[in-house]
Design goal:
The chain is α/β, with parallel strands linked by helices and about 350 residues long. The protein has 15 helices and 10 strands.
């Protein structure tokens, strides 16, 4: 196993860690077996969250029974923005994990301006720093899905590690937050290396992608900015794939990385290229804009809640109420002009049924 420095925390974390999102839905026996096997294979970092159901409890039992608490760096995350509830959540985490300290406490999913304003204004930042000075946590981290807000958060200098989404379908952090984290010496932990499930083998095949889970893990591990990658390891077979990736990612050359990205070009059925030849719509529907969000929804809908949240937010902002797809009267004016023969009225119907607005 390769170990890497996690920025200014100075922790030496294994390049492969465990994301324990789904540990609440596996048996205690399975959770314990995976933790044991992970330890035997050199993994030393596990991440969970207060919002992951019984995950912390399973991990707490496993680590206690196996006497492995001090062999892992353990992190959890809190999404509550109410100060009192945040405090309570922290006590619950320690109790669930059967430990008296966390290696890293993350403020979870600070991805909107409103959310960041709440974190800044309600005492949470002072509180986490107090926890660190008392030794109840060793380091402070933040997780975000928004690179714009993320930049502002990271520039405060309060945080020591950032948990960021990164995979061949989501490269935004690569040119923005990764270099900033490097400049400010924050450790980068990659979440969603499989796109929140979109790039898992089964779903990837359904989407018409030829990329494998192993390739996606190698892709994330081979970024020079990344300290550790934390796929959801809730089955022994996933652990084996991930271990194979960490032991062979070295063959992921720049050329191979580009080839992996090329494999996940969106291939949803009826993919709109955004050329705009179908315009104008007599009903005032901005057809390419609506289809841009509909195409994304077809990939991420029901699979990756953070992407779904972003799609809803951006769709609400970009497409006016007067141009939503339910205004389509199936006149067919657009279909005649689309060079890709997309069944636009049908797509409008599907978009109207499925896309949500705030
Ligand atoms: S079929 Fe619907 S989307 Fe196309 S031009 Fe007519 S009203 Fe607009
Ligand atoms: S003409 Fe077809 S491909 Fe081009 S923007 Fe319109 S629907 Fe999309």
């Amino acid at each position: 196993m390769e170990y890497r420095r996690l920025g200014k925390t100075e922790l030496q974390v294994s390049a492969l860690g465990i994301g324990a999102l789904k540990y609440g839905s596996v048996t205690q026996e399975t959770a314990s077996e995976i933790v044991k096997a992970a330890h035997q294979n050199g993994i030393n970092y596990i991440d969970t969250a207060r919002g992951y159901g019984e995950s912390e409890i399973r991990l707490g039992h496993a680590l206690k029974k196996l006497r492995l608490r001090d062999r892992f760096y353990l992190s959890s995350k809190i999404i509550n923005r109410d100060f009192k509830q945040f405090q309570q959540d922290f006590e619950t985490i320690l109790s669930n994990l059967q430990t008296d300290y966390l290696d890293i406490l993350f403020i979870h999913d600070v991805s909107t301006r409103e959310n960041w304003d709440k974190v800044r204004s309600n005492g949470i930042l002072d509180y986490v720093q107090e926890l660190r000075s008392k030794g109840r946590i060793r380091h402070i981290g933040v997780s975000t899905h928004d690179c714009g807000i993320g930049e502002e958060i990271i520039r405060t200098g309060i945080f020591e590690a950032a948990m960021l989404a990164y995979n061949p379908t989501n490269l935004e952090a690569e040119d923005t937050l990764f270099p900033l984290c490097a400049a400010m010496d924050l450790g980068v932990i990659v979440m969603k290396p499989l796109g929140g499930g979109v790039l898992s083998e089964e779903r990837s095949r359904q989407m018409g992608f030829s990329v494998t889970a192993e390739e996606c893990l190698k892709f994330a591990m081979s970024s020079p900015y990344v300290s550790t990658v934390i796929p959801g390891l809730d089955k022994a077979e996933y652990l084996n794939i991930a271990l194979h990736a960490v032991n062979s990612y070295i063959d992921m050359t720049e050329e191979n990385r580009r080839a992996v990205i090329a494999k996940v070009d969106i291939k949803v059925k009826n993919y709109c290229r955004g050329c705009g030849y179908c315009r104008p719509c007599p009903q005032g529907i901005p057809i390419p804009d609506v289809l841009k969000y509909w195409n994304r929804w077809e990939v991420f809908g029901g699979v990756d809640w953070s992407q779904m949240h972003r799609i809803t937010e951006e769709y609400t902002k970009e497409v006016p109420d007067s141009g939503t797809p339910d205004h389509c009267i199936s006149c067919g004016a657009c279909t005649k002009k689309c060079p890709f023969n997309l069944p636009i009225p049908k797509l409008m119907e599907a978009a109207a049924k499925n896309l949500r607005r705030y």
